[in-house]
Amino acid sequence: MTASQAAQAESGDWLVGNPTGLQLASALWIGSVGLLILGLQPVLLGALYTEGHVTGDELALVATAEMIAIAIGSAIVAMLLPARNMRWKSTILLVLLAFANFWTAYAGSPDALIGARTLAGLAEGGLVAVATELIARSRRAERIGGYFVTLQTLAQCALALILAIYAVPAAGSAGGFIVLAIVCLLSLVVAWAVPNDYADLPKEEQFANVATVPAITALLSILCYFMFFGAVWAFLEPIGAQFGIDGRTVGLMVSASLAAQVIGAMTATIFEARIDYRFAITIIGIIAAICSVLLASGPGLSVFWAAALVMGFILLFIVPYQIRLAITADETRTAVLLVPAAQLFGLALGPVAASLLIDGANFRPVPEFAAATALASVLLLGVFVLVARRRGRA
């Protein structure tokens, strides 16, 4: 094969553009830094709650503010800003996120914490778009998406273990956020390996492409699924405490759950082409509901462990199939750019909606609510399939 033939074969993997392996890996890492907080929330927010910096309601507000800000930041960068000067954008966003993490470490009030995490979320969302914009340009978006969630979860798993065993016991929640800030600063080196300009995707009438029943139901199904996980994840420590499980043990569960997420993401990457996305999303939604019901039933330590590990596995196993769902709903791939926003809005709305059901120190309604949202995601998939069949897309 000649050099030109090799280049053509490689570019065949991309709808537009032809990034090198290093450039792709760098973009995926930058996006992963933006999502580190997703795996670390139970450890860091749990520490803030244990240290008395926030109440249960304030904990939900902090988590919600950051998740909504990530969703807004990713949507703005992906939908409204051109994919140009990505190295400088990555650099500025990393510095901004490092500042927000340092601010969080020394914030003296719940209002300051909310402000710091909102700023962090906007920067994190922009970093996520650095990765998702490139993924959307791939002909193998599902597989590249699988690589993305695998990379980010490996990083989350390693950091969660470091924070739970070393940083938080030694320096409290402040130590954890300082570690996050240092990771951002170290990642500045990687930012300059990102492709500087992404080739343009056709974006004519992009909002019209999303404002259709198939696209809306697909994105709502994704949102509801992540509401399930967001509700349980944000309150995992107080749920465990209600059933006699200490915070350190929950911290270890978080790290183990993140390891299970890595396995789930890798498994989905291998099997994503062999399993129909509709079947996968339906079965995973049912499993999510069962795990939530188990957490609400007053489980012992072994059942709590099992539920946490299963939820970790299915969380990222489903992502490549959700990407396929979005591509099926909108072949222009505009909806794919909004998948992270749908996921993050779900993670944001889950805790705040569940917090409205909490009665004093009784957190049992949280997993009950999570079960309902998991089943809602399956029902919305059913609506999508019916509508898509009428339009000949499924």
- Measured by DSSP, the beta-strand proportion falls in under 5%
Helix content: over 70%
Cα distance, first to last residue? Answer: 38 Å
Q: How many helix segments?
A: 18
- List segments where confidence is low: pLDDT < 50 over at least 5 consecutive residues: 1-11
Mean pLDDT: 85
Q: Let me know the largest β-sheet.
A: none
One letter per element, helices H and strands E, the order comes to: HHHHHHHHHHHHHHHHHH
Secondary structure category: mainly alpha
Rg to the nearest angstrom?
A: 20 Å
Coarse morphology: globular
Oligomer: single chain
Number of strands: 0
List the helices and strands and how they pair.
Elements: H1 3-11, H2 21-34, H3 36-50, H4 56-79, H5 86-106, H6 110-135, H7 141-186, H8 188-191, H9 206-210, H10 213-234, H11 236-242, H12 247-271, H13 277-296, H14 301-317, H15 319-329, H16 334-337, H17 339-355, H18 365-391
Helix pairs in contact: 2-6, 2-7, 3-4, 3-7, 3-12, 4-6, 4-17, 5-6, 5-7, 7-12, 7-15, 10-13, 10-15, 10-17, 10-18, 12-14, 13-14, 13-15, 13-18, 17-18
Q: Could you characterize the architecture of this molecule?
A:
This is MFS transporter. With 394 residues, this protein is mainly alpha-helical. Helix content is 80%, strand content 0%. The protein is built from 18 helices and no strands. The protein has helices at residues 3-11, 21-34, 36-50, 56-79, 86-106, 110-135, 141-186, 188-191, 206-210, 213-234, 236-242, 247-271, 277-296, 301-317, 319-329, 334-337, 339-355, 365-391. α7 (141-186) runs antiparallel to α12. Residues 1-11 have low confidence and may be disordered.
